[in-house]
Fold these 2 entries.
Entry 1:
Amino acid sequence: MNLAMPLILAQAAPAAAPGNPLMTFLPLIVLFGLMYFMMIRPQMKRQKEHRAMLSALSKGDEVVTTGGIAGRVEEVGESFVTVEIAPNVKVKLQKSAVSQVLPKGSLKSA
């Protein structure tokens, strides 16, 4: 008799009313909104600023690469940049390897 009692009670319980589907997905929608504003949007902004910096590169700019090498831009091509890192030492890099442009005169003080 003890085994049959939960089955009887389970059958006698009324069915739950279906909830609003919007309220079911509301936490998921809010989570996606937070993720967009905290992760996706700032990353897109940084990418846009980096593309603008790369398109504005010109001869004589002082730059730092993603590897930490600092130098002066000697030649700017479509997808490559030639950087002079020491007197008569030039390195050809992809434009995307340039991480930042330094203020003029930064290399002399370093």
Note: Residues 34 and 89 are 48 Å apart (CA to CA).
Entry 2:
Amino acid sequence: MVYLKSSKATDWGKPSLLSRLMQRLSANPDYEKAFPDVSEWLIEFGEDQLPGREIGLNSAGVPVLAGPNERNYGFWLDTNMKLSDFGNEVIDRAFFEEKWNEFYSKNIQQGNQKMSTKSVG
């Protein structure tokens, strides 16, 4: 596995009424409302060089989304981008897992137990 930090796709504006309506039909219904808050992505790549898991961090470094999970397919998983398309800062697995666990433990504490995790590999 390879883990990267990226600022690609972090220039989202606040969602319009139309985009909020489209969100209901999305493969990522919980993600899209958090996109404007994402200032950095942490992405796990599998042996196939494709994204496996992803975490969106806000400007304070707090995870605002993580997936895939049972409700959200994933932003980077829904692209055809590979590891070679990024070329960003490599991070260690421990940092990725720390942020992953931070997101899910926060959601469980808040009673959002619908957010099951899915791991690659």
Note: DSSP finds two helices and five strands in the chain.
